[in-house]
Amino acid sequence: MQRSDIINLAAGPSQLPLQVLEQAAAGLLNYEGTGIGITELSHRSPEFKTLTESLENSIRAILNIPQTHSIIFVQGGGCGQFSSVVYNLLARHYLLYPDLKPEDRVADYIVTGSWSKKAAEEARMITASCGARVNV
Q: CB of 106 within 8 A of CB of 133?
């Protein structure tokens, strides 16, 4: 297969060594000798469990994360986290201040660019359903 020597310097993706790309491509076709690709594995299969355990152990070792902390794997990318943050902060706020009126629950956002603008818009949508509000 031919590859170009062009390097992408844009935000986000970066160049990977050919060996890494070839290993990833092989895993898409036949992951660890299972006969199916990694994207076809059941999330309940022993192979997937082994994969996530290995990944978790690597993350713990590289980032020095103690066993007292959980590592969770979720889909959604950065934008998916916008709602997770709001839901978690709202839940915590309700636990700390159960008697506070909904209209007195406020989330403050500082918009510095396109991503923080998207995060604030997501927060507005979520907080509107419970009577809280967002200050930008």
A: yes
d(CA 127, CA 113): 21
User: What does the alpha-carbon distance between residue 47 and residue 34 come to, in Å, rounded to a whole number?
Assistant: 8
Q: Are 68 and 108 in contact (CB under 8 A)?
A: no
Q: CA-to-CA distance for 42 and 48, rounded, in angstroms?
A: 7
pLDDT tens figures, 53-98:
999 999 999 999 999 999 988 777 778 888 888 899 889 999 999 9
Distance CA 22, CA 26 (A): 6
Q: Which residue has the tokens 């491509």?
A: 25
Q: In angstroms, what is the C-alpha Rg of the chain?
A: 21
Cα gap 85→101, rounded to integer Å:
21
Show the tokens assigned to 63. 């980032």
